[in-house]
Amino acid sequence: MTRIFVPKDSAALAVGAEAVARAIAAEALRRGLTVEIVRTGSRGLFWLEPMVEVETPSGRIAYGLVTARDVADLFEADFLAGAAHPARIGRPEDHPWLAGQTRVTFARCGIVDPASLADYIAHGGLEGLQRAREMGPAATITAVTASGLRGRGGAGFPAGVKWKTVADTPGALKYIVCNADEGDSGTFADRMILEGDPFTLIEGMAIAAFAVGATKGYVYSRSEYPHANATFGAAVQAAMASGRFGDFDLELRVGAGAYVCGEETALLESLEGKRGQVRAKPPLPAIKGLFGRPTVVNNVLTLATAPWVLARGAEAYSALGVGRSRGTQPIQLAGNVKYPGLYEAPFGLSLGEIVEGLGGGTASGRPVRAVQCGGPLGAYFPPALFDTAYDYEAFAARDGLIGHGGVVVFDDTVDMAVQARFAFEFCAIESCGKCTPCRIGAVRGAETMQKVIDGIEPEANLALTTDLCNTLKFGSLCALGGFTPYPVMSAITHFPEDFLRPHEGEGGVR
Amino acid sequence: MGSGVTVFEPWRPDRAEEIIAAHLPMDGAALPILHAFQETFGCVPKDAVPLLARALNISRAEAFGVVSFYHDFRSVPPGRRVVKVCRAESCQAMGGEAAGRHLLAALGIGWGETTPDGAVTVEAVYCLGLCAVSPAALVDGEPLGRLDGMTLAEAAQA
C-alpha cells in the first residue's frame, strides 16, 4: 500500500492542505487504489505548501504547491510511483533549501506521523531519555551544560545552568514548565514542533524532569494555535498512556491571548490562574517558581533539543555554531520574502545570507528595506547591517537581538515611523500594567510618535522619544517594556529620513 | 473550531456550576474554567464572575481582574462567525493591514465589532504563527493564509 504524506501543519492547512488530502482520498477511491494518507508536520518550505510526498522505492518524492484540482492530474501522471509532473520537486532532502540545513531540533519534523509514538520511536525517539536514565541525573545536567545549549525563547540563558539550579534547590515538588506561548510575529518554530514532532518535546521535558527531580510538567500554549493544541494534546494523552515516561505527568494548558504571558514569570502567574502580570526577580523561578516550587521554565525549542543532545552527546552539539552561540538555531523567515520557511542551521550565517541567499529577497520583487529580527521587540536592521553574523553576541553588539529566531522582511514601501509607532502601540496593548514605564510609557510613546508622523515639532518629539526609550529600557520590569526601545530606536537610527518628512494618510506598509 | 455554524448555549448558572465542578480539581483552574465558559456560552458574562470568585475562594474584584486581563474573554457572545485577523508585523509586511481594512469596510464594522445582523465578528490578533503564509487569519478556528482583501472578505461571508 502506497503511503502519501500530506502536512497537517497549520500553515499548510491555511493554504489548502486539508482539501488536498480529501481530494487524494476521493481520487484513490474512485480509481480503486488503496493508499494510506499520513498527516505529518511541515518540512518548513512554506512557499511550496501544500507539499505532498509519496513513498517510493527510491525514497519519498515531493510535489509542491499542490491544489485539490491538481490531484486527478497527479494520479494520471502516476505520482504514486514518483513520476514526472510539473509539480514534482524530487527527494525533499535533495532540495537545496533542505540540503543546506543542519536539522537537529527539526530532524523529524515533516517526516514522522505526529499522532504515532511508535513512529517516533522508529525514527530514533526516546533514545535521549534512555541515555539520560543510564547516565543518571547529575551526568544528564553536565551533558546539557557541556553542549552549550542556550534558551531558545530569546534570552539565551544556558539551559544546563538553569537545570542545575533547580536540581540543587531542595523541594518535595518541582515542576517543568514549557513556554509554548510563541507570540512573536515572524516565529512559528514552536508551533511546527507541537504539530510536527510533539513527542520530541515530551521526551525533552521528561529528560528535564528526570534531571532535576520533577514529576509534573505543564506546556503553556496559545489560544491562537487551535490545531497545534489538538495535535499536541493527543500526543500528550498517547505518551502518558504508554507508560514509557515513568512517573512524569504532563498537562497542556492554553493561554488566552496575552502576549506578555510569554514572559516566564507572567506565564507562571497565568498557570496559577491569576492575571498574567510579571513578577519581580529575584526570586528566580528556578528557586521559587510555579506555586512557589522550584521550576524549570524553558522554551519549546530548548526542551525539544535536549533529546538530541543526550542521544548524540554534548560534543556533537557544541561542535556546531560560533563563539558562545553553540549548536543550531531554527531561523524562521517570514514577512515579505520570496522563500519563507524554517531554516535550521548552526549559528554564524550572516543576516544577508539569510535574507537574500535563503530568502531570495522580497516576495514583491522590490528592494529589501528593513528586516526585523527577534519579534516585535527586536531591532529593525537595514541592508547596511547584513554582514551581521547570526548569533546572540554579534546581534547584541549591534543593538539587536535574535530572540526566538524570527526574521521578518519588509520591502521599500514600509514607513518606519509607522513601524515605530506600532511598536509602542503593541506594547500598550500587551502591557501587563504592573510597572509604570511600560504601562504609561508605551501610550505616551505612541502619542509622541504620532506627533512626529503629523510633523509636529519632529526634532523635539524625537528627542523626547529617545529619552522615553531610556526610561523604558532601564525602568521596566520585564522585556516587554525593556525591549520596546529596540524596534523604536533602531527605526530612528537606521531610517531617520522616515521621521523627518511629511506623512500622508494612515501610513504603515503603503 | 470547525466550519459549521457554532451554536452557543444560553447562560445558565447551574450549567456554569457544572463546568466549574468539572475543572476545579485542576491546579490553577481559573483559565481552564474561563475557556470552558467561553466555549459553552460564547463569552464570559459578568454573572460568571461571582461564581468563579466563590469557587476559587478569591474576591469578586480578583476574579474580575483575571477575566478582564485576557484579551480572549468576551463579555457578550460573538457573531455566528468569528474572524481573527492578524495585525502583527509579518502580516503588515505582506499587505495585511489593507486586507483587514477591506474586510471591515465590506462589513461596515470596526475592529472587535459584530455586524448588526449578528453574522460576523472581526477581532484583531497579534500573530497566528502563520507568518510564512502571511497575511493570515483564523475563521472559526480554521487557518487561512496568503490572503488579500477580496479573499478575506469572501471567507468571512461565505
Task: Indicate the CATH architecture of the largest domain in chain B.
Answer: 3-Layer(aba) Sandwich
Sheet with most strands of chain B: 4 strands, mixed
Structure annotation, total helices of chain B = 7
Overall mean pLDDT of chain B: 95
Strand content of chain A: 15-25%
Shape of chain B: elongated
The main sheet of chain A comes to: 5 strands, mixed
User: What is the total tally of β strands of chain B?
Assistant: 4
- CATH superfamily of the largest domain in chain A, by name, is NADH-ubiquinone oxidoreductase 51kDa subunit
- Determine the strand fraction of chain B and express it as a percent band: 5-15%
Summarize the structure in words.
The complex is a heterodimer of chains A (510) and B (158). Chain A has four domains: 98 residues, Glutaredoxin (3-Layer(aba) Sandwich); 202 residues, Rossmann fold (3-Layer(aba) Sandwich), CATH 3.40.50.11540; 91 residues, Ubiquitin-like (UB roll); 83 residues, NADH-ubiquinone oxidoreductase 51kDa subunit, iron-sulphur binding domain (de novo design (two linked rop proteins), Up-down Bundle). In chain A, strand 7, helix 11 and strand 8 form a beta-alpha-beta unit. The C terminus of chain A is likely disordered. Chain A contains 21 helices and 16 strands. The N and C termini of chain A lie far apart (52 Å). By secondary structure, chain B is an alpha+beta fold. Chain B contains seven helices and four strands. Chain B has a four-stranded mixed sheet with strand order 2-1-3-4, with helices on one face. At the A-B interface, helix 1, helix 11, strand 12, strand 16 and helix 17 of A face helix 2, helix 4, helix 5 and strand 4 of B.
